[in-house]
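To: structure desk
From: M.T.
Subject: fold request, one chain
Message: Could you run this one when you get a chance? Sequence is below, nothing fancy, just the single chain.
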Amino acid sequence: MIAVYLLTLGLSSAVVGAFVHGLLSRLGFAPTFELSIRVALGAAAAYVTVQLLWVTLLEALKPTRARKFLLAESLSHLAAVVLIPFLMHIQIPWPDPALAKAAPLLFLGGYVALHGALKLFSFYTALYSEPSGRLPVLAWLGAACVAGGATAIALQQWHSGIEAARPETTTMPGMYRAGDAYAEARPIPEGAMARYDLPIYDNRGITLRWANPPDAAPDEAVERAYVTVVMQGGDKERYEAAVSLAEGAWATLRVPAGDIPSGTTRCTVSWTHTPAPTWMRLLGFMPVVRSNRQLLLSGPLLHRTHAGQTPPNFVLIGIDGLSPGHMSAWGYGRRTTPQLDRLVHNSVAFQYGYSPAPDARAAYMTFLTGVNPLCHGYFAGERGPLPEKVRTLAALLRNSHYATGAFTEGDYRGDLDFGSGFENGFELFDAGYAADDAGSQSTVDKARTWMDEHGDVAFMLFVRIGELADMKVRERLGARLADRPGVTKDAEVYDAALESVDALVGGLIQHIRDSEYRDTTCVVVFAPHAVSFGTDGKLAAVDVSEEAMRVPVICFAPGTPREDRAYPVSLEDIVPALSRLANVSLDDGVDGRSFLFGPVGKDPVSMMAEPFCLTVRSGNWRYVWEPGPPPFGEVPMPGSGESTLYRVGTSTRKVALTAEHTQLVDEFQKRLAEYVHSSYLWRGLSAAAPESVSASEAPVGGEQGR
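Reply: Done. Structure tokens follow.
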């Protein structure tokens, strides 16, 4: 009878092994022939182990040699015939389509029910059979141990084979666009693993950004991805979350610092478009998924979470064309800027900030680098690249584990666009603009969403609002346009647009005030250039006049004093001030100086390319010099070109006083010539030195530090 038992045990184990293989292969657990053999053998061995342990238990409780007991056990093995229709793919006319989907479970349930009933019968057979000695128990137990060992070996090899069979992404990162935003990313096929090394430091969080590839077919686009991040180091932890993907946008998924084990040095990232069943997640057995779907993954990016004395966030808002002379905070007759007025009264505010150039590209690059246009090179039609020794504020902060994002409207305005170099240091760079729709409101909305996604980590956000400089009558200005006596149309449109932009910026600032990160956020509002109006009240042409070059600089930072300061500062002074707050070191040669703790001690210099002219605001004087040679050519020599000296007063247009102050004009020329010469040398351009300046005369722009 033992031969019959062993025969039925072998046949039923083969059927059960084949059934388990068929079930798991559908789920992705047997992607190769070798793994199919391992899973079938492992399942069969596990079945044999359970059957032998059952007999061992009964023999230990009620030892028997009765033939009818082994016969009953053999009959229980034959219950496996219930699984044969599934293995032979026999179509069963199920009464409901839902039953057809659950067919494997129904077959399994039928087998378990019949097998259990026959096992109960064998149990009663053993109870009422003739007893025998307990020595055979050892034989049954030994056989069960052998089968159990075979099970363990087969399943271990199968599990390791599953991990080895998972596809790994080998593509190199590149710049990809989702909607209007660019980010460095790589395509990750569904089910593929992407492995990354992680540096160790305190309070680190992991950020993953996901998007559908721009060329994804509609039927291949993923609306919701289920992401698994396995972190390894001292301990191994699995983090699982779902992320919703919108068309033409990056979706952010964050692994909080509290979920990252200390000592984590590596992580593996994968995703599927359907969630894994609970039993799979509990067992830690994840299937091998292969499909044609792909997602773009930007990251993993490590960001410093806020804890203790963590440096603040930075929200930097540039408003093209914002003139302090038209802001009600500083005495303008119309209440054009109630929201910015509130910020002025609670910040370190400068109504005598100065732009380095009336060109947005040159001014914004100076703001981002702390060096003048002759040094960074974004001037006179040149679009870079930046010299190797120049790093943007975004690059400095990114190296300090800040999240960095920029929304520049550059595609529409043709300046701060992707590929221009302004993306340097930004993890996410969005140059889009809703010109025919919401305008800069759309820019601010995207920036607000980005801030909220990174609210628990240190971040730097740069937002450029350009529609004030467009000088267009927009429908959304509405009742802000008024027919005031004596006010020209240009000035009226500007004031109305300024009120609209003020409300827009005020909404963004209020959002920060209402957020959880309000106490850890520094806000800077500035302008790359202002606009000026002629004596007739109409918009004046681009120039380097006092009105066009004077811009507001407003800095609200936790723990800094709140006062309106009268001394002049430049846009190049913003980087030194913020780097000091962030505790990051600047490169040598930065022109600017921090304005947070007193006067910067240098005169602001501005310049224009066509025609090339240099201008300096020193005390109550503004001096303008057109030296002759074009930018990046010969060094201008004192005594050449045309000079104009103005006394800055209360009138809109200044009277030239050049002939009355020739000695002062000569001094300004020498200083500006030295300023240009030192800038060229710092940039690496060969240049002949101008006439020497006496040791007592410091360069107009201050010590260059180069």
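Reply (cont.): Residues 628 and 641 are 5 Å apart (CA to CA). Let me know if you need anything else for the meeting.
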